[in-house]
Amino acid sequence: MITCYLRYEIRLGKLADFEAYAAMWLELLPRFGGIHHGYFLPSEGASDVALAMFSFPSLAAYEQYRKDSAADPDVQKAIAFAKETGCFTRYDRSFFRPLFPKAA
């Protein structure tokens, strides 16, 4: 399994737009075989940082998602929404291999 960790910098005054954008991806990603672990929006502390995590069974499955989603009209709609609203200024993406407790 591979987990993608995203750190977004949200534009001032655009949290509601970012939340709408995030909600789109919560529904989109599972269509392509991923598991979305959610978005984590600002509460206390930094008001311009949001996080997200999602997983795929393998890096190959993630790469297939990237190819398949590129042609999806709903994905294009989400990307256009982010561009139109300017809800975030940048994001960083990192990949991790999760370690879970051993089964009893």
Helix and strand succession? EHEEHHE
Kindly identify the CATH topology: Alpha-Beta Plaits
Average pLDDT rating: 94
**Main CATH class:** Alpha Beta
Shape: globular
The low-confidence parts are: none
The CATH architecture designation is 2-Layer Sandwich
Question: Pairing-aware structural class of the strands and helices?
Answer: alpha+beta
How many β-strands, per DSSP? 4
In whole angstroms, the N-to-C terminal distance is: 20 Å
Q: How large a portion of the residues is in β-strands, by DSSP E?
A: 25-35%
Helix content: 25-40%
Can you characterise this structure?
- The protein has 104 residues and is of the alpha+beta class.
- The protein has one domain: Alpha-Beta Plaits (2-Layer Sandwich), CATH 3.30.70.100.
- The chain has three helices and four strands, in the order E-H-E-E-H-H-E.
- Strands 2-3-1-4 form a four-stranded antiparallel beta sheet.
- The longest helix is centred in the N-terminal third of the chain and has 14 residues.
- It starts with a strand and ends in an 8-residue tail after the last strand.
- The mean pLDDT is 94.
- This is NIPSNAP protein.
- InterPro entries: Dimeric_a/b-barrel, NIPSNAP.
